[in-house]
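job 3f2a | input accepted
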Amino acid sequence: MAEMHPPNPRLRGREQCVRILILANIVPARLGGYEEFIARLAETCRSAGDECIIAAAGAPAGRAADRWQSAGVRWEVLPGWTDANGVERPWRFVAPAVRLVSRHAPDIVAVRFGNELPVCAAALLCGRLKKKPIWVWEQDQQIRKAGFAARLFSRARLAGAVCGHMIAVSERIRTGLVERGIPQSRISVIRNGVSDWPARADRGLLRREIGAGSADLVVGMVSSLIPRKRVDVAIRGFAAAGLARAVLVVIGGGPLEAKLRAEAESAGVAERVRFMGPRSDARDLLGGLDVFVHTSSAEGCAYAISEAMCAGLPVVAADAGASAEQILDGVTGFVAPVGDAGRTAERLRILAENPDLRRSMGAAARARWREMFRVERMVGLYIETCRSFFGLLNGRTRRISANPD
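job 3f2a | predicted structure (405 res):
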């Protein structure tokens, strides 16, 4: 275990402080949207004299480590949760989690983890502790529409029975939880938010690297090359659009790269699809794009879409997760059916032929990011949700403050 910042000295001797322990199955090897959220949350809590501790599956590295250090994030590694090969070991979460809760005595334990059963086991075991925290389940992954069996019994319903509250990252996810028998009053919607990015206006950085001219149309995506991201749909849609002087840029890595390169070759666009690999400067490259595409078949609330909106890009996205909440169809971009390369191609063609539409949609996308998907708003809503539990915290009045704006 490791700790990158000492406890907040303003906590000493205070009765009216709140301690939040976040258990998140992430390995913060890069500074992504969630890692920045943790940094902002720690800064906000610290300025109010309260405390936030995160236990992750791995230690922060690179820019994520620097950012957490500067923000004063208190972090620990939950041992055994994820092995050296990145394979999740769900049941190895339980004992270390119980020890952490016992040692830190938090008021709130928030869990961002895709397996409900180990979390339920840990929460029930913590029921023996003298100080019993409120457990909050964060549903950040897409769930299917509930069928008859899921309405009667599901792991999400079990988590809802054990945890005091649930956070959904989209209205679609909240609907799925309600379908599974969880009362709406115990579900808060807090959409993922991202910070502004000063380099978003640097149009030349990416274009110089790929050799694209000012008249070339550059379509891009930031995505892991794994099955559920359906990068193949983007490649086939790009090919079917038949765009002259256009390039598709794929930023990200993963096990499907060879297969996707073959897909591009088969579609006849191999020379116009650029695989950039994993990039720590992915957001810096967005300024060189004209259109952003996101074809995932399963999402929560995609940080990549919000980052594209922040960069002032029109987005063509598959209707998965929160994409239809992030994108106003026909206003800030287009939403296409999941897996539909033909409809994706149609939307790309419309945007390729209408530079004024690209500009107006991009401006509207940035305005929508500013209104709904800023990290400041996410942090503010998160803390307001925590504030709503105060009457349940051992009968004591507690304080925490933040301004979502």
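job 3f2a | The longest strand covers residues 19-24.
job 3f2a | closed
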